[in-house]
TrEMBL record:
Residues 140-200 are annotated as: Disordered. SUPFAM superfamilies: Winged helix' DNA-binding domain. This is MarR family transcriptional regulator. It comes from Agromyces albus. Residues 157-173, 185-200 have a biased composition (Basic and acidic residues). Residues 174-184 have a biased composition (Basic residues). It comes from the Bacteria.
């Protein structure tokens, strides 16, 4: 489907699919890509979040308290030789620090790939527009990342608004992939608690 600009006779492509369709396609693709990225290292996305918490690159005392109450969740990282110490005083080993930096590089590379899909100006406009829409719908900065509901959204054919198959990520959450906030390729922050409840 196309629309025509009568002033300059250029053709501007548009999509017959609703906003929710594209948001969920991107959500699914990011879920799969991030899962594969960490699986290649033999860890899960939860392990990645926990590494960031222990390293101090993410601050979330509530999650640290939960991990301290369930220290077995750190056991895989200890067994890999990446983490040492006792609950509430965990720290990264030299190997763990090297793994974290390597993973940060791979995540940053993925972000750069995503950002490169459009111009820096278009990417900034997209991000600010999505935030404006979220705020218009009642979102505020102090909200936690929403969990997915058991309903389906927009994975059907063009023109079908939300009658496709519902997608749930590996841990039952569908958002918070640490999308780049801006177009800087050197970004090295994971916005680690975008989906901080993955440490639970």
């Amino acid at each position: 489907m196309t629309t025509h600009d009568n002033h300059n006779d250029t053709t501007v492509p548009t999509s017959p699919r609703p906003l929710g369709y594209w948001l969920r396609v991107i959500d699914r693709r990011l879920d799969d890509t991030m899962r594969d990225l960490f699986a290649a290292e033999g860890i899960s996305r939860r392990d990645w979040r926990r590494l960031n918490l222990i390293a101090g690159t993410v601050s979330d005392p509530r999650m640290i308290d939960r991990l301290a109450a369930r220290p077995e969740r750190i056991a895989p990282l200890i067994e890999r030789g990446w983490v040492t110490g006792e609950p509430r005083s965990w720290s990264l080993t030299e190997a763990g620090d090297a793994a974290l930096h390597s993973l940060h590089g791979r995540v940053s590379s993925l972000r750069a790939t995503i950002a490169d899909a459009v111009s820096p100006e278009d990417f900034a406009t997209t991000m600010s527009s999505l935030e404006a829409i979220a705020r218009q719908l009642g979102w505020s900065d102090d909200e936690r990342m929403p969990r997915k509901h058991g309903r389906s959204f927009g994975h059907g054919r063009p023109g079908e608004h939300g009658h496709g198959v519902a997608h749930r990520s590996e841990h039952g959450h569908g958002h918070g992939h640490g999308l780049p906030h801006g177009h800087a390729h050197g970004a090295d922050r994971d916005r680690g608690t975008d989906r901080a409840d993955e440490t639970e």
